[in-house]
């Protein structure tokens, strides 16, 4: 299986990364020990950047201590956090669609870090907002914290098919959020709004039993509607949408993908990245798949959502 993918960190402040040092760069064959350069030219030579940097990685993501200024508990398995960033950290750096961070209570060991998507930011007041579903020990530990957290980031690969969101201009767009997946809709809606796109957000409370994104989306003036599967099917078939973003389970992604494919709809698809992510740097391997002898790390690999679903990667 040959996948055409890019690295979300290429040409960023975090490139070259740890994988360049270990000989596992997902873009550069030379850094992986090959004799031939076959990197599909990502508009930068990562090997040259690595040499210029003294054969070392570039910047590390920061560990940022932040204060919790508001915590809202919606149920025993759903809560939100509003945090105030320190003066040397700017919320705008976390303002891209698909951004996530690793969070833990300040006094907890590092193995309590859990990846959480950034639901929204307030640039003027330097605030970040998170919605969190309580599922296991890490999120239970975070649920019990009321004062201070440590976050590590930003990381940007929370969405597959991100290029369609970034390049969309004056198109009809549908955002579909179910359960805690709704948390990623707000930043996508704001990004699409900057491109003068027409946006409708479809929400289903799912397992958390609450439409956590509804209030924020309406505050920004976006059209919000509840949905059930059958009604969603009809709207997709009749709505003449040009871009759909699915935030939810893999089964939801596949339902939408199959609907588009079977009905030959001319619709671009972006989806929430549901690969298991543990370190965010491609080092631990929890998100990695061996595809025809090539180890692809999906905390960094940016691929078309349609291709990922067609190949059964999700």
UniProtKB/TrEMBL annotation:
<dbReference type="InterPro" id="IPR017938">
    <property type="entry name" value="Riboflavin_synthase-like_b-brl"/>
</dbReference>
<dbReference type="InterPro" id="IPR006058">
    <property type="entry name" value="2Fe2S_fd_BS"/>
</dbReference>
<dbReference type="InterPro" id="IPR012675">
    <property type="entry name" value="Beta-grasp_dom_sf"/>
</dbReference>
<dbReference type="InterPro" id="IPR036010">
    <property type="entry name" value="2Fe-2S_ferredoxin-like_sf"/>
</dbReference>
<protein>
    <recommendedName>
        <fullName>Dihydroorotate dehydrogenase B (NAD(+)), electron transfer subunit</fullName>
    </recommendedName>
</protein>
<dbReference type="GO" id="GO:0051537">
    <property type="term" value="F:2 iron, 2 sulfur cluster binding"/>
</dbReference>
<dbReference type="InterPro" id="IPR050353">
    <property type="entry name" value="PyrK_electron_transfer"/>
</dbReference>
């Amino acid at each position: 299986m040959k996948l055409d993918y890019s690295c979300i960190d290429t040409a960023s402040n975090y490139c070259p990364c740890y994988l360049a040092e270990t000989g596992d760069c997902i873009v550069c064959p030379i850094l992986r020990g090959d004799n031939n350069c076959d990197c599909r030219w990502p508009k930068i030579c990562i090997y040259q950047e690595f040499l210029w940097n003294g054969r070392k990685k570039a910047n590390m993501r920061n560990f940022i201590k932040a204060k919790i200024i508001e915590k809202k508990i919606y149920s025993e398995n759903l809560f939100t956090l509003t945090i105030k960033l320190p003066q040397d950290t700017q919320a705008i750096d976390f303002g891209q669609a698909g951004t996530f961070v690793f969070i833990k209570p300040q006094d907890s060991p590092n193995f309590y870090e859990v990846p959480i998507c950034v639901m929204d930011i307030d640039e003027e007041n330097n605030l970040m907002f998170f919605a969190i579903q309580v599922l296991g020990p890490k999120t239970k530990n975070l649920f019990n914290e009321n004062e201070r957290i440590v976050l590590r980031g930003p990381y940007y690969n929370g969405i597959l098919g991100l290029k369609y969101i970034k390049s969309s201009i004056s198109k009809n767009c549908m955002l579909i959020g179910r359960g805690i997946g709704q948390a990623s809709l707000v930043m996508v809606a704001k990004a699409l709004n900057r491109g003068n796109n027409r946006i409708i957000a479809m929400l289903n409370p799912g397992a958390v039993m609450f439409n956590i994104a509804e209030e924020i989306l309406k505050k920004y003036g976006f059209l919000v509607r509840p949905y059930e599967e059958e009604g969603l099917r009809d709207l997709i078939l009749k709505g003449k949408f040009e871009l759909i973003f699915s935030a939810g389970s893999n089964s939801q992604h596949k339902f939408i993908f199959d609907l588009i494919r079977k009905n030959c709809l001319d619709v671009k698809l972006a989806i929430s990245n549901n690969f298991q992510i543990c370190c965010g740097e491609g080092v631990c391997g929890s998100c990695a798949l061996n595809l025809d002898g090539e180890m692809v790390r999906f905390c960094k690999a940016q691929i078309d959502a349609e291709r990922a679903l067609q190949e059964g990667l999700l």
